[in-house]
Design goal:
With 249 residues, this protein is an alpha/beta fold. The chain is 43% helix and 14% strand. It has a 7-stranded parallel β-sheet, sandwiched between helices. The radius of gyration is 17 Å and the shape is globular. Bound molecules: NADP nicotinamide-adenine-dinucleotide phosphate (NAP).
C-alpha cells in the first residue's frame, strides 16, 4: 500500500449527483474505491450510471434529502460498511435581512436544515458503519471564514461546519476516525452558474492570485481523496481553503 492508496475503500458522497460531489466520486472511483452517490433528486441514478460508464466501476445511487432525518437514518443506516463519508450536499440562496419576511425565513431554515443539520444526520447514520482508519470530510466554503452581504443563512451554515468538524474530530478521534473540512473558493458548478452575476464574477476573479478563472470540480476533487489516504492519518479537526489565493487565513 502506498501513502496515497484508497483502493478498496467504500465511500459515501452526499450531493454526488453533480458538481463538486460528482467530481469527488469520480476521483475516488478512478483511484479504485467503491462509491455511493447520494442526492435528493432523481438525477442521482443517471449520475451513478454515467460515473460507472466513465470509470468502469460499479457505482451505487441513493436518493435521499439529507434534511429528512428519518429517511437518512433508514437509507444511510442500511448502506453497510463505509470507510469514507464526504458530507458535501448543500444549497446556496440569498437571505437578505430586509427581504420578504416569510420567504426569507423559510429559505433561512431550509439552508440550515440542509447545509448543517443534514450533515449531522448523515454523519450520525454513517459512524456506526465506520471503523478505525475511517475519514469524514465536510465541504465548507470560502464563507466558512469570511462572509458576504445577503447570505447570512449560507455563511452561518458554513461557519457551523467548522464547529461541527472540530467537535466531531474530538468525539471520533478515540475511534480512529478523522474529521476535516475543505473550503472551496469559486467552483464551476450549477450553484455558481445560478448565483454569480458577471459583476461578482469579475470581482472574485480579480481577488485570485494564481490561475485566475473558475476552479473546475475535477481540480478540487483530489484534495477530498487526500484526506482518506494513509498520508493524512494524523490530520484531524482541520480545515483547508482551496481558492487560488482568493482568501488567505
Ligand atoms: P451543485 O452543483 O448545486 O450540487 C449540489 C449537490 O447537492 C447536488 O448533488 C444536489 O442534488 C445535492 N443536494 C442539494 N440539496 C440536497 C438535499 N437536501 N439532500 C441531498 N442532496 C442535496 O453545487 P456544488 O457547487 O457542487 O456544491 C457542493 C458543495 O460545495 C455545497 O456544500 C456547497 O455549499 C459547497 N461549495 C460550493 C462552492 C462553489 O463555488 N460551487 C463554493 C464553496 C462551497 P439534488 O439537488 O438532486 O439534491
Amino acid at each position: 500500500m502506498t501513502m496515497f492508496d484508497v483502493s478498496g475503500k467504500r465511500v459515501l458522497v452526499t450531493g454526488g449527483s453533480r458538481g463538486i460531489g460528482y467530481a469527488v466520486g469520480k476521483a475516488y472511483a478512478a483511484a479504485g474505491a467503491d462509491v455511493v452517490l447520494l442526492s435528493s433528486g432523481a438525477e442521482v441514478s443517471k449520475s451513478a450510471e454515467r460515473l460507472s460508464g466513465e470509470t468502469g466501476r460499479r457505482i451505487e445511487a441513493v436518493r435521499c434529502d439529507v434534511a429528512d432525518r428519518k429517511t437518512v437514518y433508514d437509507k444511510v443506516g442500511r448502506l453497510g460498511r463505509l470507510d469514507v463519508v464526504i458530507n458535501n450536499a448543500g444549497l446556496c440562496r440569498q437571505t437578505p435581512i430586509s427581504g420578504d419576511r416569510d420567504e426569507v425565513d423559510d429559505i433561512f431554515e431550509r439552508t440550515l436544515a440542509v447545509n448543517l443539520s443534514g450533515q449531522f444526520y448523515v454523519t450520525r447514520a454513517a459512524v456506526p458503519l465506520m471503523d478505525k482508519g475511517g475519514a469524514i470530510v465536510f465541504t465548507g466554503s470560502i464563507w466558512s471564514t469570511t462572509a458576504g452581504a445577503e447570505y447570512a443563512a449560507y455563511c452561518a451554515s458554513k461557519h457551523g461546519i467548522l464547529g461541527m468538524t472540530r467537535a466531531l474530530a474530538h468525539e471520533l478521534g478515540p475511534k480512529g476516525i478523522t474529521v476535516n473540512a475543505i473550503l472551496p473558493g469559486t467552483v464551476h458548478t450549477e450553484m455558481n452558474l445560478q448565483n454569480i452575476t458577471p459583476e461578482i464574477r469579475k470581482l472574485v476573479l480579480a481577488q485570485m492570485v494564481i490561475n485566475r478563472g473558475w476552479i473546475e470540480p475535477d481540480e478540487i476533487a483530489g484534495l477530498f481523496v487526500f484526506f482518506a489516504t494513509p498520508a493524512a492519518r494524523d490530520i484531524t479537526g482541520q480545515s483547508i481553503h482551496y481558492n487560488r489565493g482568493q482568501v488567505m487565513v
